[in-house]
Write a structure and sequence with these properties.
Elements lengths: L4 E7 L7 H10 L12 E3 L2 E5 L2 E10 L6
Parallel strand pairs: 1-4
Antiparallel strand pairs: 2-4, 3-4
The protein binds guanosine-5'-triphosphate (GTP) and magnesium ion.
Length: 68
């Protein structure tokens, strides 16, 4: 598949506010049973269709603190 649109979403926020749960829900369709504090950056992908256009969305889950 050749993507005409690939959107990257970066989720940044304080620790333990639910970033991992939010992005997991978006990509997997359900909430995780339990999560551990994210170290560094996580990556997920989901393809969505908007106005008939297939768009690849990559929400990157980031931990609360630390350097970029
Ligand atoms: N009640 C409630 N709890 C939530 C919700 N979303 C997440 N949690 C809980 O909040 C805690 C932290 O969620 P995470 O998604 O791991 O938080 P995070 O922002 O990724 O945390 P870090 O990776 O440490 O930065 C977990 O115990 C979740 O079960 C929500 O919408 N409601
Ligand atoms: Mg996390």
């Amino acid at each position: 598949v050749t993507w005409r649109v690939a959107a990257r979403i970066i989720v940044i926020g304080d620790s333990n506010v639910g970033k991992t749960c939010l992005t997991y829900r978006f990509c997997a369709g359900r909430f995780p049973q339990r999560t551990e504090a994210t170290i560094g950056v996580d990556f997920r992908e989901r393809a969505v269709t908007i106005d008939g256009e297939r768009i690849k969305v990559r929400p990157g889950r980031r931990r609360g603190g630390g350097s970029p």
